[in-house]
Amino acid sequence: GAPRVTPAEFAEMHRLYNELGNAAEVARRMGRSASTVRKYIQMKDCPALVRHTTKELIRKSNIGSGKELPC
What we know:
Elements: H1 7-20, H2 23-30, H3 34-42, H4 48-61
């Protein structure tokens, strides 16, 4: 199978998704499948506390960008 998504790739998926708003385009740019990108954007199978903490960290890194997470 494909190599695991690294923390840096995870952050880049969210950054690109916030910029592009399209999981398929993020997948093309990163060389991953759209389903993998969607899974990591939606953080499926991830504990609620981890989802919340991750969203907060990403939101704080986007302060002033005018972009919010869709989930």
